[in-house]
Structure formats: structure tokens, C-alpha cells
Amino acid sequence: MDCSRAQQSQASDEVDKTTAVVEKQQHSQSKQVSKDVREGEKTGASKCTKNHLSRIMRPDDANVAGNVHGGNILKMIEEAGCIVGTRHCNTQNGDRCLAALVRVEKTEFLSPVFIGEVTHVTAEITHTSKHSLEVQVKVMAENILTGAKKLANKAALWYVPCSLQNVDKIMEVPPIKYASAEQEEEGRKRYEAQKMERLETKARPEEMMPSPPNPEKHTVGFSQSSLIHLVGPSDCTLHDYVHGGVTMKLMDEVAGIVAARHCNTNIVTASVDAINFHRKIKKGCVVTVTGRLTFVSNKSMEIEVLVDASSVVEAEKGKYRAVSAFFTFISLDKDNKPLPVPALKVEGEDEQRRFDEGKVRYLQNKEKRLSDKMRGQ
């Protein structure tokens, strides 16, 4: 009995020591964060303009072939951007606020990420205007068994800070310090360009047409897909509005279904054109995420994804367009090598118009990739 008591006492002492060490580390980390915030208030929040997240990829993050879903990567990118944006915007006096996502620039998926790899997501604020900020995010994938690392994704996101007291009140953004006047000017040009494109996209909402009852294979109607989702508390921010990352994940899932139905093979996200968030989606709303093919090349598929929302309790207000984007997918064989994509059978003037517009985007993106490759980017 005495021996048992001694062992229990020793175990209790070990637990107490471990707890003390953990509490000491947490206290030290808390003091460092507070110090960074205080220094940020004095220096234009330079200590609060970067953020880093890491997470190991698990089976529920990937498809049956082991490729991590592009939507999960987009969700991690948005989380990192929201953290650094919210932290930066709260380094000044006034109402506490939360950074709300309004736009994601064109995003390239440069390398696939697989189950068991660790994704390192680094987010940095690169430009601020009076009421918005740009966050550039880089995703590295690490094989922790070999130590090999690869650049998986790069993205640029735009946020606006919304007051926690009044979600419709947009707060002012603390300025950041730029390395040079040229860097500040380049950021201003990006800000003006994205502002113009957001306004243009918002001005041309288009209804998603219902698919025909018995569509022919490889037509737009054959692969068109929709997902209906009730927005719950776990989907939302402190404002009770949907996280941008949650919406992007749903959009990627629907686009993936469309691509898989068209080519009947393993598919992965190759890139995403600008994602524009037109209106907020509140907790309790029903969202309808619909995807349709707009253009198909020899080895890629462009899918338009539209997100419409409606209130369950205020049905009289009707449905509204909340988010829109174009996703590009590629088809892969069992060795993850690109496969030819079946041609798209276009029917009617509207489908032909969308196909022609998609072809223009495809050629522009192809030209840009070649240009970036020549510059070594």
C-alpha cells in the first residue's frame, strides 16, 4: 500500500511539473503576443503583418486517389489570411473588428499535395488602403519522412475589416510600412485593378439555367451539378456570417463533381480565377452552389461556379447571388499524369457564347503562364 501511494504521489508530482511547464510556455507566448501588438501600434503593426499555419494532411482531406482537395487548401489559405488581417486591424484603438474576405485573385495549384504531407501556410499583408488590405499567401508542402519541400500554391486575397458591434460598419485599416515607394505603388495598382474587376463582376449577375431532363453525355447539362447547404454555427465567423474559406471549399467540391462527371476519371484543381464575394451569407441561410462547364481544352476543363443564398425565415426577400468564380480542373491517370479531356458538346447560343468567353480566358491564362515562366517566377 505504501509503495502504491508513493508511486501515485510521484505520478502526481510529474503531472504537476508538466502542467507548470505548459502554463509557463503559454504565459510566455501570451506575453510575446501582447508585446508584438504593442510594438505594432507604434510601428505601423509591422510585427502583426505575418502569420504561419501548419497542418498534416489526413485521409478526410483527400479524394480516393490520395490528392488533397483544392477546397481544403483554399480553406487553409483563407484562415491564415483572416487571422493576419484581423490581428493587424485590431492594433489600433476603436471598435474591435473582424477581417471579412471580399475577393481572391487568380490562384494556381502548382503541385499536388498528398495524404501524410504537412502543409505550411504563410500569410503576409502586402498592401493596405483606407478600408481594405491585401494578403499574399504561400503554401509549401513538406514530406516529413524525406524532408523534401515543394511550392504547392500561391494566392492573393483582399479583406475589409467589419466592426463587431455593427457588421455594416467598415473600419479603417492601419497602414503598413513598405520596403520602397515602388512596392507601395505596385500595391496601389493591384488595389485599383481588383476594385474595378469586382464592380464589373457584380454588375453582370446571370441566372443558372436548369439542366434538361435527359441530357446527352458530354454536354453542359449532363455534368451540371448543384449542392444545397444549410449554414450552421460551425460555418460562421463571430458576426454569424459564413467564413469565406467554407464557401470556397463548397465551390471546389461542386466543381470537382462537374469535372468528374464529364471525364469519368480522377480529377484535381489546377487553378481558380478570381473569386468575388458579392454579398454576405448569414447563419441560417440556405446556399445553393451550382457548377457548369463553360470551356474544355485538350487537357483542362473550366467550370463556372455560382453561389446563391436565401433566408429560411425571410423567404419573401428572395434568392441573391453571393459568390462567383471559374475553376479549372485537369484529368489524371493512376500515375497522376494528365489525360486528354473529352470534347464539350455545345448547344445553343448562350452555351456557345460562354464557350467563346472561356476560350479567351484560357488563351490569356496560357500566355500569362508562359510569360511568368520566362521571367522565372
Automatic annotation (TrEMBL):
Residues 1-50 are annotated as: Disordered. Residues 21-32 have a biased composition (Low complexity). It comes from the Eukaryota. Residues 47-165, 221-335 form the HotDog ACOT-type domain. Signal peptide: none annotated. It holds the Pfam family 4HBT. The active site is at N63, D252. Residues 1-12 have a biased composition (Polar residues). Keywords: Cytoplasm, Hydrolase, Lipid metabolism, Repeat, Serine esterase. It is found in: Cytoplasm. InterPro entries: Cytosol_ACT, HOTDOG_ACOT, HotDog_dom_sf, Thioestr_dom. GO terms for cellular component: cytosol. One of its GO terms (biological process) is fatty acid catabolic process. Its EC number is 3.1.2.2. GO terms for molecular function: carboxylic ester hydrolase activity; long-chain fatty acyl-CoA hydrolase activity. This is palmitoyl-CoA hydrolase.
